[in-house]
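Subject: Sanity check before I submit

Could someone independently write out the structure tokens for this chain? I want to compare against mine line by line before I put it in a report. The sequence has 834 residues.
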Amino acid sequence: MDNSTNNSPGDLIENVNIEEEMQNAYLEYSMSVIVGRALPDVRDGLKPVHRRILYTMQELGKTYDKPYVKSARVVGDVMGKYHPHGDSALYGAMVRMAQDFSQRYTLIDGQGNFGSIDGDSAAAMRYTESRMSRLGGYLLLDIDKDTVDFGPNYDGTLTEPKVLPTRIPNLLINGSSGIAVGMSTNIPPHNIGEVVRACLEIVDNPDVSVDDLMKIVPGPDLPTAGIISNISGIRAAYRYGRGSFTMKGRTEIEQITKEKEAIIVTELPYQVNKSTWIESIANLVRDKEITGISDVRDESNREGIRVVIELKRGEQSQVILNTLYARTQLQTSFGIIMLAIDNGRPKIFNLKEMLKAFLEHRKDVVTRRTSFELNKAQAKEHILNGLKIAIDNIDEVVEIIKKAAGPVEAKVKLGEKFSLSDKQSQAVLDMRLQKLTGLETRKIMEDLEAIRMLIVELKKILASDVALMDVIKKELTDDLALFGDKRRSEISSADDKGFDVEDFVRDEQVVITITNTGYAKRNQVSEYRSQGRGGKGIKGAGTGSDEDFVKDIFVASTLDSVLCFSNLGKVHVLKAHQIPEMNRTARGRPLVQLLTLSKDEKIMSVLPVKEFRDEQHVVMATALGVVKKTALSAFSAVRSSGIIALTIDDGDSLISVSIANADDRVFLATKEGQSITFVESDIRPMGRSARGVRGINLSDADRLIGMEILAKDQEEGKAYTILTITSKGYGKRTGPEEYRVQGRAGSGIINCKTSDKTGDVVGVIRVRQGDDIMVITDGGQMIRTPAYSISEFGRAAQGVRVINVSDGEKVQAIAVVRDNDEAGETANDGTAQT
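---
Independent answer below. Compare away.
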């Protein structure tokens, strides 16, 4: 035997470049994943697995009006005939098509447990039953009329549709998501009514712009409803195929008791697992990252979602809600990537292109369906024409059939005699005798006339694009009437810009203290209990050293701005909540860590401000008696490094700042007990860099220690007095009427008689009935006492003891605490005293 022609094993080996081979193999794999598994077709909006499931159910005859069938039967047929993959993956895809919280319009009507929004898995497929939904059936209408191409299945034994002849724009109304190799798609669901109306607009006006279409389709419409914001991101996606939007759950606030509220969540963002979300809230509460929640209950039922988040007494619901939006999936974002397969290639579409692709598919489907129906009508006309000829010559036909030796001979002779085709001759032979009755004969004539009219109509459709589009338009209009529903998701008109820090801050009154060496902290006002006059006080602040002492103290809202004026004449800004909250005896945080200060800069005075009003002015006073007035709005935008507030002379320093309105009076007090009062208009407004003007003439040893802004007239029920405190703890109240208005820059009049017993004046402050005051010493002792428990005296009196000052200590600062309903006024009127 001659083996010379046989190939040796070495001859069967082909040398290839491994890099090229891997590139080609990976490219083939990636295209297989992209086209055959992970991405939807732009025409019917389905991936192959979903298309095969629906086609199998069509083959089983399980339309919406037929009995259910076991899901296992469907999965088995799909897997055995068209989709040779795991049954669990197949069933998972089928389950999602039946979940009304996953799809805006379900394509499968499921019976049994098909999972829940809590993440519960569906029951095993042997327990559940299914059939196509009515809308799902509209994806397969006319599939038996040669409307789409078919191709071989995985083993070549059957054929399957390459695309479905859908009558609805499924890709947009149900959306799609998938990750392929090197690319992904993420298309949100939309409202079918809006999408169909947009298609109709394109049919009527092919040149319509994307912006005009966005007036019809304002945004996605999610199965779980909720609130959609960030319209700019949606518009970007509709214009360019990529964008994003924000989804928020729908909430409402319920009053449980007089002091307790609850946040009720009735809608969640799309694709959020309710059970996992509730668990995340519980974890935040457990880890004390959210402290205002007392209970979370899931009261959801078949009628909808209802999650009750009960708040603790006195908590502000909006602050907690903002925290939930920021820290949990009560607010999420959706990144839109409008990627789909177009003619076998992945492509990113804008809104109009995606709708046009669907309409082009419909044109192809309707054209092929019309051609199919025309061929069928012409074939029927051909038969009816033969039957008409036979009826018209019935005696001869009968005679030919009677004389024929057999059916074949009769068929041939009929064709020869009446010029009939084989099909016509066969139809005549197959005609039953009842067709010869007058009624049946008339019916044949009517059918022939009707079929001829149908042929004319079908040819008209095929001959005219206008007629073709009219058919598409009518079908879309019918679909709109059948499936159109109301929008679920609300679209917010404002673009989402995220949350400011203030959105998570509870609006409440706090006490802020600043030490001489620049340490700051805040405390709750409630930590300082009211005491009787003359008490020893409570420990208010630990200074950490014998040289340091508390210098400034004031009351503000956590959302107020705190303007910090320095010895160099610059102003810096903090939000009150940015000052760290510490216990009452803590020293605080250095201001140099909170502000951007220069090397020799030191904060000398602070001013809490609620809002920057144009009609208000900031009045500043220095130790050498210089005053200056600048519009409050000039300080509304302060750089992180600070801005110039006023020009300071050598040897001078800023000691007090207040806000003044028109016709207010400016009251200045000195450490030796002198004072002067003049009208605010005596100070002309100046720019931030100006020096100021003389406010009071001082003796060489005297210095200005305080400034108060006094209203021109005392309102009924809001009368105030001027409280003066000395360094050794003496104080008195004096009526403002005792301080006559003088001209600016004079020597003033006596305010308080000072002596070795009382010490120098250290502070003046305006108080009302019901106010408490806090007095603090340089050693950190503090007392809170009703202001009107301090007796009222004339200007020349020394006053009474307010606080017992230890040896070696002296009073350094005073502040007023007003009721919550006057919080705003406290903030704007508050003045730091030293």
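---
OP: Matches mine. For the report I'm noting this point. The radius of gyration is 44 Å.
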